[in-house]
Amino acid sequence: MSELLLAARKFTRRVDEATPADRDRAVDALRAVAILGVVLGHWFVTALVPGGDGALHTASPLRDMPWLAPISWLFQTLAVFFLVGGHVATKSYAAARERGQTYGQWLRARLTRLFRPVAAVLALWSAASAALLLSGVPLATVHTLGKLALSPMWFLLVFAGLTALTPLVTRVNPLWPLAVVLHVDLIRFGFGGPSWLGWVNVAAGWLVPYTLGAAWTRGELTRRSGRVLLVGGAAATAGLVAFAGYPASMVGVPGAAVSNLNPPTLAAVAFGLAQCGLALLLRERLRVWMRRPAAWAAVALVNLSAMTVFLWHQTALMAVTATALPAGPLPGLHTAPDSLAWVAARAAWLPVFGVGLAVCWAAFRTYEQGGRRASRGGTRVVRVRRAPVRPGGRTEVRAARHG
Fold first, then answer.
1. Which of 91, 150, 168, 324 has a CA-to-CA distance to 17 between 20 and 30 Å?
2. pTM of the full predicted structure?
């Protein structure tokens, strides 16, 4: 045990020493918080319950226990993804232009590294779906599992689209896409407009934090800006929920007439503004915290595997759930999420989901890292560099052999 601790301390120290002095570690910390928030949020509010037809169906504790809505306030952190993404993409594009890269070269590099890990997910689930159907698993179960596994893809498509628009949105005032969201919701909910109009907000809604990230790069977001966003966004969200009929949950609830997230509503965007404000206010504290080698090494490793974690966390949940099916209906795993006992039992399952995710990480992380493997033997030097790859870029820890 002492040898392991010594090795861990040595590794964290080397990661810390190899990090450039001008790197803004708060950006990586915010990205890691956003990633872990999404993972824990999905694990808390997504249940797979056997139905009377023998198939597995998704269920959510938020449907039977709506007073648990504050859980969604803690773990719905997508706005922070787009805030960091807009910030780093804007810096990356400016740096690429200084190096003489064309727009096409810059975009191709970013999108190639963004979508590279997706191939493994698509390949595995295509094969798994075919195998399940051939083995007699109900089509409804295969549809449920496939939908959960591939649901993170929508985020990548939206983020890729905004990334492609980076040169155009670097100077866009966030009030413009916010105004689009406001008018779309006004037409939908105030004047009985068509529901399909809400899908305009998929682009406009996430463009709000993305353009805030660009404003951050330009140095326009101060602590005062953070306070205004936090207080104003929180007040607007509370008013929309209390007086305009928006759901209190910031994630979708099965069976609900309106979802704040699918597509994004004005309430979700206002809530995202509050999150962005809090993120901006926490920058200095995060920079101080990230001076600790252990904390920084943990954040660096999360960023290194961010896409793997993001793409495979639902698969880990489903693998644990399916593996335990022969043991009978287990509380918090196969039972209906309709009581506090279920919430407590689900919390106890979170470490098991973590083990499942660790297995997925070990199996598929090389797709995210381009197939590079640490060299064996000899002296290894750990380098940490910025490589803008996914929502807001990524931190890459590379092991290179010398001598």
1. 91
2. 0.87
CA distances, 290 to each of 16, 78, 105, 275, 309 (Å): 9, 22, 33, 20, 21
Residue pLDDT tens, the chain, 403 long: 677 778 778 888 888 888 888 889 999 999 999 999 999 999 999 998 887 777 888 899 999 999 999 999 999 999 999 999 999 999 999 999 999 999 999 999 888 888 888 989 999 999 999 999 999 888 988 999 999 998 888 888 999 999 999 999 888 999 999 999 999 999 999 999 999 999 999 999 999 999 999 999 999 999 999 999 999 999 999 999 999 999 999 998 888 889 999 899 999 999 999 999 999 999 999 999 999 999 999 999 888 888 899 999 999 999 999 899 888 789 999 899 999 999 999 999 999 999 999 999 999 988 887 644 433 333 333 444 444 444 444 444 443 333 3
Between β-strands 47-50 and 379-387, what pairing exists: parallel, antiparallel or unpaired?
unpaired
